[in-house]
Amino acid sequence: MLLAGVAFGVRASAMEASTQELPLFDRLGFRATRYRAVIDRAPTPAISMPLDRALRLHPGKDALFLDVLPAEGGHLDRTSGRWMLAESHDTIPGSLWFPETGRGVVDPLLWSALTARVEAVRHDHPDWPIVVFCRADCWMSWNASRRLARAGVANVFWFAEGIDGWHDAGRALVQVVPETVSVAQVRNAS
Q: Record's superkingdom (predicted)?
């Protein structure tokens, strides 16, 4: 009976610990868990971009649109730098997909791939706005836009409605694959 009580106590403690909620935000103010939820604040110093303004832009032609939605069930093959996907992904035409870069704690390899692309586009198009998005009520784009702006990247916008708002406004979506992480970046991270 004593062993049963000890076992039950251990299970109860484990259950209790697993139901305790992790903090929603880390010490720097990035959302760290439960990413799909209503967003109640601006991603300062990034600027919120309303739907009507986003719809006036032409991704890849006068603005850099960055999709940071995760690759559900997918993973990065660190040998090739390519993503192995479990399902397809539709997004805003002309945008670039960098999965997992909106997490509270971002894999440095994935973040460096995103920032390298931002730097390359900025070199060629210094005045283009950078528009970061995922889905409506998703903190990942909030995190990524804020992180870029806090790193000193100018003209960074958070498009809160994201893929959902774009599609709900009658705009088409296209199937894309994630941007490849360069083999040099993969080697440097090893």
A: Bacteria
Nearest 5°: phi and psi at 34?
45, 65
pLDDT of residue 162: 99
- With a CB cutoff of 8 Å and minimum separation 6, the contacts of 48 are 42, 157, 158, 160
Q: 42 and 114 in contact (C-beta within 8 Å)?
A: no
**Rounded-to-integer distance, Cα 21 and Cα 75, Å:** 26
* Other CB atoms within 10 Å distance of the CB of residue 117: 16
Predicted model pTM:
0.87
Please state, in angstroms and rounded to a whole number, the distance separating the CA atoms of residues 52 and 1: 67
Specify the CATH class of 24-189 in words.
Answer: alpha beta
CB atoms under 10 Å from CB of 159, counted, come to 30
Mean pLDDT, the chain, rounded, equals 90
pLDDT single digits (tens) 74-102:
999 999 999 999 999 999 999 999 999 99
DSSP sequence for 46-101: SEE--HHHHHHS-BTTTBEEEE----TT-EEETTTTEEE-SS-EEE-TT-EE-TTT
Average pLDDT over residues 29-53: 97
* Strand bridging mode 82-84 / 75-77: antiparallel
Domains of the chain by residue range: 24-189
